[in-house]
Every structure is written in C-alpha cells, then in structure tokens.
C-alpha cells in the first residue's frame, strides 16, 4: 500500500472530519495522519487517545517501561497520560488518528467504555491478515482522495465513525461483549421488520404463517416466537389487527364497497369481514363509515 497517493486524503480528513456522533457517542478528532516514512520521535505523552496502524516496515514501540516490536499489520494504542515513543531505523509506513470522547455529549456506557480503554492491558495487536479496522481505514482514505462531491463530508464522517468504533472494539473487550450480547435481538428485529413490511404490503393475500416464514427463509415456529417475544402478540392476532386497521382506513378515506374492502384486506367474504370487524371495533363496518361521514359533515357545517 503506497501511502504517498493518500496524502491528499489526509488533508481532506483534517479539513472535514473533526466531530463524529455515532451510536450514542460523540468524538472529537484532533488529527488524522498518513506518514509514508516515520523514523524516531521523542518520548512524549498526550491528553487523548492516538492509534497507529503499521502499513509496512519494522520498529519498536515504547509504552512506559514496556517495549513492543512493530511490524506490518500491527495496530497499537497510545493512552492518555502515558509516556510513549516510536523508534525505527529504516522507517515505518504509518496511518494514525488522535481522538477523545466528549463526555458531556455521550451516554454513560460510552464514558465507561473509554475508561476501560484507558486501562486496557493489550495495547499492541499483531494481525496476519486484513482486519475490519484495516479495511475501513483504507476505505476512508480512498474516499477522502476523491474529488469533493455531494455528501462528501457526510460519507467521510460516517466511515470515520465506523473506523473509530472498530478500533475500540479491537482494544476494549467490554465493547465486544456488549455487541455479542445484543446480536440475537438485533437479528430478530430485522426479521420482525421484514415480516411486518411483508404483511403490510400483502394484506389482500392469505398470509399463512408458514408462507410468510418461507418468504423470510425461517421456520414458522421461529417467526411465531419472534412476534410473541418482541411484540407480545401471536402472529395471527397481529395479522388480523393489521387487516382491521387497513379496513378502518379504507372505510374512512375511500368509496370502496364493503365487498371490495373485504377483498383488499384479505377476508374471504363480506360476512366474515363484518363479523370480525364488529367484534373488534364494537360497531359494524357500515355504521363505522356512517359515523365518520357524520363527523366530517358536522365539522364542515360548523365552519
């Protein structure tokens, strides 16, 4: 990876990406760095986090009294208030970013995550293959070197936010545990969203549990469990409620006949539609429509 072609990207990042708000966290980025050849620097410390990624080369990283070997694909973390130093006889190709959490604009869980980052024991990570962090960093630099276009700043900020969170996931075990804990509910929520959209857009169809589950590539039992776990209602009750909800809207806003509304909302005939609607709404479809028309007529007359 030739870093010289990304020097213009470094300029764009330092021009446009200073503040990142993502996932309940607000970060201030002090600077972005692209260094084709980095040799020695002085022993020093920061009041913020600095993360470096070794694109190529060899060297050493000093962190207080500890010394670590640096090589290609190494990522290392400099913590606030900790004396550190980089040394390399032949030079290192480095990418780096310096940032800190804005506590007052972030939720408490992020404050705790950053406190954990300050105390993390594993500050140097060696990788044999490309990681998510490396791929995000490359993607960010590629985007930053392109000519400015619509949503240029927004795209850079979004990728940069993902990069910083990925970096923190590399070093903070608690953040990974939180994500693993939330994995299954998030997957269920995606399936629930897909199921609800499918039901909403196909209410005139039969919508058997097994057919909708097959559309989502899951079992009927799994789909049923998702509705009970996340919404607290059975699948059949949810579908029926959606049918009646749409029927109510059509009765209010359209001139469709009861037969047409029954077909549009998936009821097998007008009699069955009327029976279900009356049970749920405590009034017949015809009376419901009349009441709504009466309300609008009265409102119109009064004005």
Automatic annotation (TrEMBL):
Top-level lineage group: Bacteria
KW DNA damage (keyword) present: no
Domain HTH araC/xylS-type: start-end pairs: 193-291
UniProt-listed Pfam families: AraC_binding (PF02311), HTH_18 (PF12833)
Gene Ontology MF, one: sequence-specific DNA binding
Keywords associated with the record: DNA-binding, Transcription, Transcription regulation
InterPro entries for this protein: AraC-bd, Homeodomain-like_sf, HTH-like, HTH_AraC, HTH_AraC-typ_CS, RmlC-like_jellyroll
Protein name: AraC family transcriptional regulator
Organism: Niallia taxi
Species classification: Bacteria, Bacillati, Bacillota, Bacilli, Bacillales
């Amino acid at each position: 990876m030739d870093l010289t072609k990304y020097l213009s990207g470094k300029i764009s990042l330092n021009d446009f990406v200073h503040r990142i708000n993502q996932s309940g966290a607000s970060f201030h980025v002090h600077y972005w760095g692209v260094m084709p050849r980095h040799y020695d620097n002085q022993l020093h410390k920061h009041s913020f986090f600095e993360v470096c990624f070794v694109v190529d080369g060899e060297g050493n990283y000093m962190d207080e009294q500890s010394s670590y070997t640096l090589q290609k694909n190494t990522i290392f973390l400099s913590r606030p208030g900790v004396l550190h130093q980089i040394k390399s006889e032949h030079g290192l190709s480095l990418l780096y970013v310096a940032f800190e959490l804005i506590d007052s604009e972030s939720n408490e869980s992020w404050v705790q995550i950053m406190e954990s980052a300050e105390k993390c024991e594993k500050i140097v990570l060696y990788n044999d293959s490309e990681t998510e962090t490396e791929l995000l960093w490359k993607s960010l630099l590629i985007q930053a070197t392109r000519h400015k276009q619509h949503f240029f700043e927004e795209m850079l900020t979004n990728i940069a936010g993902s990069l910083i969170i990925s970096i923190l996931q590399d070093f903070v075990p608690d953040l990974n545990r939180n994500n693993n804990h939330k994995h299954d509910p998030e997957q269920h929520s995606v399936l629930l969203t897909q199921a609800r959209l499918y039901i909403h857009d196909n209410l005139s169809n039969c919508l058997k549990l097994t057919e909708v589950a097959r559309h989502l590539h899951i079992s009927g039992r799994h789909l049923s469990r998702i509705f009970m776990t996340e919404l607290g209602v059975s699948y059949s009750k949810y579908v029926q409620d959606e049918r009646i909800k749409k029927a109510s809207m059509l009765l209010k806003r359209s001139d469709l006949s009861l037969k047409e509304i029954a077909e549009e909302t998936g009821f097998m005939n007008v009699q069955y539609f009327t029976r279900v609607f009356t049970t749920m709404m405590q009034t017949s479809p015809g009376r419901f429509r009349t009441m709504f028309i009466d309300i609008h007529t009265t409102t119109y007359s009064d004005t």
